[in-house]
Specification:
The complex is a heterodimer of chains A (about 475) and B (about 450). Chain A is an alpha+beta fold and about 475 residues long. About 0% of the residues of chain A have low confidence. Chain B contains 16 helices and 19 strands. By secondary structure, chain B is of the alpha+beta class. Chain B is about 35% helix and about 25% strand. The mean pLDDT of chain B is about 95. The chains are: A alpha+beta (about 475), B alpha+beta (about 450). Chains A and B meet through β9, α7, α8, α10 and α15 of A and β9, α7, β11, α10 and α16 of B. Chain A: This is FAD-binding protein. Chain A: It holds the Pfam family FAD_binding_4. Chain A: One of its GO terms (molecular function) is FAD binding. Chain A: InterPro entries: FAD-bd_oxidored_4_C, FAD-bd_PCMH, FAD-bd_PCMH-like_sf, FAD-bd_PCMH_sub1, FAD-bd_PCMH_sub2, FAD-linked_Oxase-like_C, FAD-linked_OxidoTrans_Type4, Oxid_FAD_bind_N.
Chain lengths: ~475, ~450
């Protein structure tokens, strides 16, 4: 009855076609790209087409004390767009207009639903592009990239999304519209643009995003080197950086991935390759020529089995083909996988990868690795089969072991997927209660009633005195793998 | 509170040698306000204890690095205690293979660079007075210089941070790895917050390798339009400049004198540096040179080695057009790159109308314009109001085009007559709420940040 009334009100705001309340249709919104951990449908999905409608919807949620969460393309990998406590999902895909492109100043203003790649496509004839390039860039939205501070292979040189966001229009949980940052670089006041970026939809809804565009480099060079052991490839990564070269990307794949790719795409990686390193340089032609030579020498010195250099765009695409298909290829060797996301200092890569292998052996799992080696950003794919009793639980436990490993060498439990729902119970491993309390102050300043994407990013305490959100045990907690602080 | 009594209590935390009281506090004056006591904590624990004392007694605290940028910010509403961080000056960690390093806040930037240079690396910061600035001060003010064109500012380079809060609690944000999205990006909140949310204790940075070689090209233009066109072409070409500075004729003349070059009267200068492997640097300088010639450069110079070092030092440390005995107003406008030349022109015209000498230096690719207005001491005392009006006039121009204008330093009489920060927009109440949550009693740098925060 109550829901009926709210749905009617939402019809009045966005139109009948843009409200989803039917339980069957809502199943589409049960999860994001983190499909196996948790599934909860929202009560209602609403698809506004402009900022004013977002404001009206948020004000309605405020009045009715309904939790809500913004959602882009749903490509997130940490369950950040799962409606933990029911409520309203505000889907922003219809807000997909590029509002302004100012090439003279290398800026653009876009709505949050603009697909990452679409922005680059809109400016590429003028030799510009939008630098953040998450693997999902053909589907993920800029608003989602902002919410997750998305990374990607090329953020080694160009920084993650936060480096490329200059300003935001945000609808707060109260329904108030606020402007953060601007089109110029140094805006007086606290850096709310930087604070909001990566806040995983917990501080409000971005309804306009001012981004920085970049000029395409004069030249690009892509190299693929194969090594017998992943240790050697990891050493090569550190040595390249220590030489003073910052490639635009340095991506690594291990023997499991190589095997799966060979079986599928027949790429022709050399016999006995235990690791493949994909290195891309961009910049002035003379510079990358010189750097490529240095890199080749480093690879040869470390006994590369094979070294290929792309001669044209077509060959470049070929070298990237394996990397881009890597995660999909793992589907050929396992029923399911749990894609972890941890970061370690580059120099610890050989040691950490050995320990990841040991975790795999101890748990009798295959753990395949494809990752952003230049950043030390690991993506272990823990292969499991949930049809077998207890395997999902063991896979999650292995993931937890990897997170602890990353922290033990001074790393982070997530480099680009975020905390979301997946890691909410693991964030206390990285931050003390005082650290988390400081973050909670931020959240309460923006959203004192915790209406925005509740139950994400920061653990709610069991007492929940100030939060108004029902305490709800996480799956890992129910299964005895972790405990709430 | 009585200065001596406060100093005694502080001495119990930091030791008697590390406290100043009464007249000895005068060098730590901010906008004519003298602190009651000055403390120099020696480690994180001592700083935390000092904050606990301040918090329990409701004392306001001014965090202090080298003091070079203490002129930034509104006139403080209260000054009880200055907390100087120069004893927190350690390199905590540097891992060359990871290109990361962690420093305590009070370490001078020059010590940081000297140490990193030994590994062929550096922290790409070159704010004004960079031979004296401390890391913490650079972060708290998000100060930057010409190198931001290629490398960004502290905001882009801090990956981890430790902070002492108003109540003495120590917390951290970020990590010692170049990529992390675990929780809110607290680094961004503290960088540029002028110590109003907490005192930065230490920070971890992404470093950069030193380029193999670096060369600088200077082109002089008789008319502003030529420089504007050359600038636009360079910004949209594939050359990767480390620094792009546009110097007004006043600035060019003064800097030319400092580095021993005679720049003709009335010419604006474009100074560009390129770093990297020698063959690439040569090719890019050649491209830049061609753009400048085609757009009518009147004269050009290639500078290298020590002349280049002293040139960039003069640009970074540019502060005085004339010399001693005069007061100065330093303004920073942040505008769109296409609006840089107009901003310089408008700023200089205004200064002329006010009877002030002026010079302008601009990180043109980033849209940052620094204006230096210099006048006789008597004038400031007599007529701060008309200068304040002039600043407001310039600010109106800048804000109308989507930018902002901040007073970096000015005599207190001028600061009393015009808002140092200018309008912040409709997020001010949110900023106030953040301040309230982090520093409920308003002890940290009260009154000096935007909107009187």
């Amino acid at each position: 009855m109550e829901k009926r009334r709210i749905v009617e009100e939402l019809y009045a705001i966005v139109g009948r076609d843009w409200v989803i309340a039917d339980p069957d249709e809502l199943t589409v919104y049960e999860c994001d790209a983190m499909t196996f951990l948790e599934r909860t449908a929202p009560d209602i999905v609403v698809l506004p087409s402009n900022t004013e409608q977002v404001v009206e919807v948020v004000k309605l949620c405020d009045r009715e004390r309904l939790p809500f969460l913004p959602r882009g393309a749903g490509t997130g990998l940490s369950g950040g767009a799962i409606a933990v406590a029911g409520g309203v999902i505000i889907g922003l895909n219809r807000m997909n207009r590029i509002l302004d492109i100012d090439l003279a100043n290398q800026r653009a203003v876009v709505e949050p639903g603009v697909v990452n790649l679409a922005l680059t496509q809109a400016v590429q004839e003028h030799r510009h592009y939008f630098a953040p390039d998450p693997a999902s860039q053909a589907a993920s939205s800029i608003g989602g990239n902002v919410a997750e501070n998305a990374g990607g292979p090329h953020c080694l040189k160009y920084g993650t999304t936060t480096t490329h966001i200059l300003g935001l229009e945000v609808v707060l949980a109260s329904g108030e519209i606020v402007q953060f940052g601007g089109t110029t670089l140094d805006c007086p006041g606290y850096d709310l643009t930087g604070l909001f970026t990566g806040s995983e939809g917990t501080l409000g809804i971005a309804t306009k995003v001012t981004v920085r565009l970049m000029r395409q480099a004069e030249a690009v060079k892509t190299l693929l080197a194969s090594f017998r052991a992943i240790d050697t490839a990891s050493t090569v990564v550190s040595e390249i950086i220590a030489t003073g070269i910052i490639p635009s990307a340095m991506e690594m794949m291990d023997r499991h991935i190589i095997g799966a790719l060979e079986e599928w795409l027949h790429i022709g990686y050399p016999e006995g390759a235990g690791a493949v390193l994909l290195i891309e340089l961009d910049g002035p032609a003379a510079e990358i020529e010189a750097q490529a030579k240095q890199i080749e020498q480093i690879c040869v010195r470390h006994g590369a089995l094979d070294l290929r250099v792309a001669r044209d765009e077509q060959e470049r695409a070929l070298l990237w083909r394996g990397r881009k298909g890597a995660v999909a290829a793992v589907g050929r060797i396992t029923h399911e996988f749990y894609l972890q996301d941890g970061v370690v200092p580059r120099t610890t890569l050989p040691q950490v990868l050995r320990e990841v292998e040991a975790i795999a052996e101890r748990n009798a799992f295959v753990i395949a690795n494809v990752f952003h080696a230049g950043d030390g950003n690991l993506h272990p794919l823990i292969c499991f089969d949930s049809r077998k009793e207890g395997e999902l639980q063991r896979a999650i436990a292995a993931g937890a072991e990897i997170m602890r490993l990353c922290l033990s060498v001074g790393g982070s439990i997530t480099g680009e997927h975020g905390i979301g729902l997946e890691k909410i119970d693991f964030i206390p491993l990285m931050y003390s209660p005082d650290d988390l309390e400081a973050m909670q102050r931020v959240r309460l300043a923006f959203d004192p009633l915790l209406r925005c994407n509740p139950g994400k990013l920061l653990p709610t305490t069991k007492s929940c005195s100030e939060t108004n959100v029902a305490y709800r045990p996480h799956r890992v907690e129910r299964e005895g793998l972790a405990q709430r602080i | 509170m009585n200065s001596k009594r406060l100093a005694d209590r502080l001495a119990r935390i930091v030791g008697a040698d590390h406290v100043l009281a009464a007249d000895s506090c005068v060098p730590y004056t901010v906008d004519d306000r003298i602190p009651t006591a000055v403390a120099f904590p020696g480690d994180a624990q001592e700083l935390s204890e000092v904050m606990k004392l301040a918090s329990s007694d409701g004392l306001s605290v001014i965090p202090w690095g080298s003091g070079t940028t203490i002129g930034l910010g509104g006139i403080p509403t209260r000054v009880d205690l200055a907390v100087v961080l120069t004893r927190l000056n350690r390199i905590i960690d540097h891992e060359p293979g990871d290109l990361t390093a962690t420093f305590q806040a009070g370490i001078p930037l020059c010590d940081v660079q000297a140490s990193l240079h030994r590994s062929g690396q550096f922290l790409p910061f070159d704010p004004a007075h960079c031979d004296r600035r401390t890391i913490g001060g650079i972060l708290a003010t998000n100060s930057s210089g010409p190198s931001r064109h290629r490398y960004g500012t502290a905001r882009d380079l801090v990956i981890g941070i430790r902070v002492v809060h108003a109540d003495g609690t120590i917390t951290k944000g970020g990590a010692k790895v170049v990529k992390s999205v675990s929780g809110y990006d607290m680094n961004k909140l503290y960088v540029g917050s002028l110590g109003t949310l907490g005192i930065i204790l230490e920070a971890t940075f992404k470093l950069h390798p030193l380029p193999a070689v670096e060369r600088t090209w200077i082109a002089l233009f008789q008319a502003g339009e030529g420089a504007t066109r050359a600038l636009a072409r360079i910004l949209h070409a594939t050359v990767v400049c480390t620094r792009i500075e546009l110097l007004s004729s006043g600035a060019a003349r003064s800097i030319g004198r400092q580095v021993g070059c005679q720049f003709p009267e009335g010419t604006a200068a474009l100074a560009l540096s390129v770093g990297g492997v020698p063959e690439a640097v040569d090719a890019q300088i050649a491209a830049i040179r061609q753009f400048c010639r085609q757009e009518g450069a009147a004269a050009e110079f290639l500078v290298e080695d020590r002349t280049q070092d002293s040139l960039w030092k003069a640009v970074c440390n540019f502060s005085s057009v004339t010399g001693d005995g005069r007061y100065q107003v330093t303004l920073k406008a942040s505008v769109l790159p296409t609006h840089v030349v107009d901003t310089i022109h408008y700023g200089e015209t205004l200064a002329g109308r006010l009877g002030l000498e002026s010079a302008a230096i601009s990180e043109a690719g980033c849209g940052i314009v620094r204006l230096y207005w210099t006048g006789a001491p008597g004038l400031a005392a007599n007529d701060p109001i008309s200068i304040a009006k002039g600043i407001e006039d310039l600010r109106d121009q800048v804000v109308r085009h989507g930018g902002s204008l901040v007073i970096l330093s000015a005599p207190a009489a001028i600061k009393a007559a015009v808002d140092v920060w200018g309008p912040v927009g409709n997020a001010l109440s949110l900023m106030r709420e953040l301040k309230r949550r982090f520093d409920p009693n308003g002890l940290l740098n009260p009154g000096r940040f935007v909107g009187g925060i």
